[in-house]
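Risk register update: the risk of archive-format incompatibility is retired. Evidence:
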Amino acid sequence: MTLDPISTGIALEIGKIVLKTVWEGGGKVAGMLGRTVDKATQNLVFQASQKYVENYEKRHGILKVLGMREPVTLESVYAAVQFLDDRALQRFESVEALEETYRLSEGRSFQGKDCPKQEGLKVANAKQYLMVLGGPGAGKSTFLRRMGLEALKGNKGAYQPGYIPVFVDLKVFNKGEINIEKTIAEEFRICGFPSPEESTQRLLQQGKLLVLLDGLDEVATDRMNEAISQIQNFVDAHKQNRYIASCRVAAYRHNFRLFTDVAMADFDDAQIKQFIDNWFRREPDIAEDCWKKLNSKDHTAAKELTQTPLLLTLVCLLYERSRKFPTNRSTLYERALRVLLEEWAAEKGIPQDDLYKGLDTKRKEMMLAEIAHDSFQQNRLFSTRREIADQIEQLLKEILPDEKGVDGLKVLRSIEVQHGILVERADGIYSFSHLTLQEYLTAQHIDDQRQIEKLVTEHLTDRRWKEVFILVAGLMRGGADELLLLMEKKAQTYLNTPKLKALVMWADQATAGSAGNYKPAAKRAAAIFLHLDLDPDRALANAYAHALAHILDFPIALAVNLDLNPDLNHVLVQSLSRALSLAYTFEKTKIFKSVNFVVLIARLEALKTKISRNNQPIEFCRAFHNKVLQTWCNALNLNLELVDLSEAETEALDNYFYASWLMVRCRQAAVRVSPTTWADIEDRMVTVRD
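Archived output:
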């Protein structure tokens, strides 16, 4: 490998550091090769330095994970890291406090948007001793490797110049002697530095090394105490140098006296986009398309996975192969779960610490699925350590009946350290690492007829369960027919008053046999949408009626609600403009069988002359709005009473359209559905059944 001019310059800088440190300091090397540095010695050191840069870039500057076909340079996909001020998490003293804070955030990130963050590079430059904590795949090792690459650049890099980075993979201490200085000397020896042991000693004495200690959690349990002692002693003996260490947060139960502890923050939108742009740097159009789709409502839960670099890498790989995200979203989440349970540890060469014989991946998954389901059923996202440990013990008595004296706390800790699926959010308070994974595991647990009936009966219109319904449909390998029929039956119960039934019957009669080339159910939903849009107080049900029509391929735009502007004339103009816009739109769609939109538009245009330029009293505004409403109802042959829904009726209609919309989403996610079953359901949608 031939170094580029920049790397050659970096090698020269490293050579100068070595020569200055070792020869000016005297010692064995200077005694062997002479106090003066001749040309041959310089060449020897510079060649070794070139080899050192080459080795570091080959071993630590390349990324190839999760079955990537081709390796990529780490710098080409790297997104700037941020550290979380973990003191922000320590303020929570109870499960209830965490639950309240999370729900107030109205997001899917457990870290929240207001947690203080610090730029990783700045922290690394400011702190001589730094301990980086994070979950599996959070980017700890990548950050250490990147800091080494920056240090290698000397004056051209973003890290403090004058330090030679040495990357020490701590899991090498699982075998053989634990000797950090000897490990560093070996890095110099294989590159051809003269007398590497003496050179290492002099560099350490002069504080010229950036020692990167990666993966403390990957040291075997039976060697951990010795490794910690050796690290402490080494740092104490060579305080002049700089150190960055990493450990999974769940495994960090030590007090490294000199180190500042920081936690990896979840990726925010800017970091996710930067990573995607970097990943598809040669195809910016694809990067933009990937980012756009990821931010669509259809992929809200998938985007949550991208908050960690490991799963963001998985998402980019899947998108790279097909230029789309899996239609069946359970495929993506199943793959993500498999990465956390098996693949990531295997790729990093971390031995699996299974506490009990028979507690394999499948059984772990079963156990996690029941824990996820039970907490979701109780509307809880957080649980205490003791609650989860007790549940683990109870489940393992059933899963592994031959095991005696099962320790739930040890199993919880093992899962937390190895897989990062259950994580400690505050002292003794746990949650799943991603809400998406909890939803997927909850769906996995719902695998028989009784549980599906309970799901539909209790949670059909609970928006919190939306993703679970869609995932259940995607996991039903035998077909989702029964789920959809149960959903349809439950949805019909929301059309529970004579007025609601009359409204739906009007939509059916008004659109049946019309010229518009759309599905009958879409026409009926669009008609209800138009009816609801006549009154801005029906905004929520309006939105779901629109969503149902849209998902059934009806191209209408959702009208905006009235702006409650103090200028009442402005309200009147806005109201009339919206009415005209809808009239023009629906005239083109031809979904109504006998509505003369030309006459309707003319009458609405005539109403414009009634609006004075001067502000009108509120009584006039109400009368004007009623006039617009009456004009619409006359044109649509719609009884004005059907527009006046009670609050309870509006809520029921909202639930009906939400349930119908969710049925369509479940149909789209399902692996198998009988065409006949779905055709019948769709034909009955937005109708009154006897």
